[in-house]
Amino acid sequence: MDSIPSQDDVRSTRPNMSWTMNMDNLLIETLVEQANLGNKVDKSFKALAYDAAVRAISLAFRVDCTYNNITIHLKTIKKNLSTISNILNSSGFSWNDLTKTIDAEPKVWAEYIQAHPEAGKFRRKAINNYDQLAIVCGNDQVTGARAFTAREALRQKVTTSMTPNNIQTMHEPAYGELDEGENAGDSTL
């Protein structure tokens, strides 16, 4: 007698999903919103947050997105963010907030890529949602007056300055719309 496959069996036989930049942006935006709602504890999201991400991706892009698709893609995003962090922590590299790219002299890039080939894909790539990735991938929690969605963050640059007597937040207009990059169909990370 044939048994009915469990949900886990069905999930494990589905092929990996192809992620686009727009899917990445929605996933990150949704998870930032879920963190704002308190659905992230330390470095882990609650099941409710994953459910919201599955629904958002499935509805917006008319795909059969699963919990496993989200968690597998988050591992990829975290791995890429780790690569980006390693680049930025290396001598000669800096973050360009205007272009949302990693800057360095060509010789510095060439030497780094020779030693770390996986870093090459970030040489000229805009990382438009870099600020939000700290919330999604890290231990950062955003609450209260500092909480904002990824969409709001793209509309404004938030600069926080702290002094011993006060904490002041200033909002400045963003420099422009998102740059879809050379490979608009590629995943952001």
Give the helix/strand layout.
Elements: H1 7-13, H2 21-36, E1 40-41, E2 44-45, H3 47-61, H4 67-88, E3 94-96, E4 101-103, H5 106-115, H6 130-137, H7 150-155, E5 156-162, E6 167-173
Antiparallel strand pairs: 1-2, 3-4, 5-6
Q: How many distinct helices? A: 7
Which regions are unreliable across 5 or more consecutive residues at pLDDT < 50?
A: 140-185
Mean pLDDT: 77
Number-wise, the strands total 6
Number of domains: 1
Write down the Rg.
19 Å
Question: Largest sheet at a glance?
Answer: 2 strands, antiparallel
Overall geometry comes to: elongated
Which strand order spans the largest sheet, edge to edge or round the barrel?
Answer: 1-2
Q: Give the helix level as a range of percent.
A: 40-55%
Query: What fraction of the residues are assigned to beta strands by DSSP?
Result: 5-15%
Structural class: alpha+beta
SSE string, helix = H, strand = E? HHEEHHEEHHHEE
InterPro entries: Myb/SANT-like_dom (IPR024752)
Organism: Nelumbo nucifera
Protein name: L10-interacting MYB domain-containing protein-like
Region (Disordered): 166-189
